[in-house]
Design a protein that fits this description.
Length: 387
């Protein structure tokens, strides 16, 4: 007998676009929820990130971000589009969207209006900034949130270049998406236990501040502050990948004992006698200086040689790998993280499976839909064939 999906029977109407909301619903779709992706007639704008193999709106990013979902493509400015959305909401457990508050009210799908359609609805609003503050009506994208949370000042702290810079990842979008996923799950659990829906707000600014300031609030968490904000270990200019004979490697001497062990493995008698590292108490206090010394010695061996030696001695280490080489990582291959799949319209592609595993419950999902692929079964308008 086939296993039921973990979120079998949970229907989610997803009126989100770009990455924040779609990443949250990708996670929920991976867990087996029936996610109906409601999008414009032209499709979610992030569908066009990257060059598609065959079909317009099927850029490479959408193949994973929207896997497991069904697509309902409508024009919410028309009565027909509004009726189609109202119809799917009438059978939904969750409505999640990232339309700004005033705009969704004008469309007729604010919380009270949707609750009139589906009284026990879990209504999840993905916003840039919490509605209770002065930024509540502002738009937000990943770059804006990285700037507002101080994240753009981290690289300057580490390398001394004073120019603020973004971390080259949609990290705020994806972190907020994770918060959106767990918030939705918590509200679903509450509904299943107590029979009531609710309004949930997931603000990107607050969620990413919560994420970044766990360590970077640092001494500023105390009043008065004992030290400035910024976790020293993370902004240490010498805490970087170390050069090897054929590349770079990450090595983490996290404890005084591991520093001592590394000195032995390096055969660095001079460091063993160095008063900064000779005693246990000094090793962590002088860890930045140790990083600097370590970088002078790691070119003695190749990355593979260092990885073998360090693994044998329980010192955390991994070689620096280029993005393009990650799919060939032997561990990821062994656990079938990247699966060579065939999309019905786009051909072969690498599908990323859900990163967590469960001893019960299926997590198999359908391929990402084309724009409006499920209009007929979901009551949406007939779409003109793309040219």
């Amino acid at each position: 007998m086939p296993q039921q999906k973990l979120l079998e029977g949970i229907r989610i109407v997803d009126l989100t676009n770009v990455v924040f909301g779609p990443y949250a619903t990708e996670i929920l779709a991976d867990l087996g929820a029936d996610v109906i992706k409601v999008e414009a007639l032209t499709g979610d704008m992030f569908r066009f990130a990257g060059k598609p193999s065959h079909t317009a709106g099927m850029g490479p990013c959408t193949l994973n971000l929207n896997k497991g979902k069904r697509s309902l493509s409508i024009d919410l400015k028309t009565d027909e589009g509004k009726a189609a959305l109202a119809a799917v909401l009438g059978e939904a457990d969750v409505f999640i969207h990232n339309v700004r508050g005033k705009a969704i009210e004008r469309l007729g799908f604010g919380y009270d209006a949707v609750r009139a359609i589906r009284p026990e609805i879990v209504y999840v609003h993905c916003v840039g900034f919490g509605s209770g503050g002065p930024y509540g009506d502002l738009q937000a994208y990943d770059d804006v949130i990285q700037a507002a949370t101080g994240t753009t000042t981290l690289l300057p702290r580490a390398d001394g270049n004073p120019v603020p810079r973004y971390l080259p990842s949609l990290i705020a979008d994806k972190v907020a998406g994770l918060h959106g996923a767990y918030a939705t799950l918590a509200a679903i659990v509450h509904k299943l236990r107590f029979g009531e829906g609710q309004f949930v707000e997931v603000p990107m600014f607050e969620t990413f501040t919560h994420f970044m300031m766990q360590e970077h609030l640092y001494g500023a968490a105390l009043v008065p502050a004992t030290e400035t904000a910024g976790y020293p270990r993370q902004v240490d200019p010498f805490r970087q990948p170390f050069p090897t004979a054929d590349g770079y490697i990450s090595i983490v001497p996290y404890t005084p004992d591991s520093v001592g062990l590394l000195i032995t493995l390096l055969g660095a008698d001079d460091l063993a006698q160095d008063p900064r590292f000779a005693v246990t108490n000094g090793r962590i206090a002088n860890i930045s200086a140790f990083y600097e010394e370590l970088a002078k010695r790691t070119p003695q061996k190749t990355s593979a040689e260092w990885c073998r030696i360090l693994a044998e001695n329980q010192v955390p280490a991994m070689p620096v790998r280029d993005l393009a080489d990650v799919p060939s990582d032997p561990h990821l291959q062994a656990v079938d993280f990247f699966e060579l799949s065939v999309h019905p319209t786009e051909g072969e592609y690498l599908k990323m499976r859900a990163p967590v595993t469960f001893s019960a419950g299926s997590v198999e999902v359908r391929p990402a839909p084309t724009v409006g692929q499920h209009n007929a079964e979901l009551g949406g308008p007939a779409l003109k064939p793309s040219v």
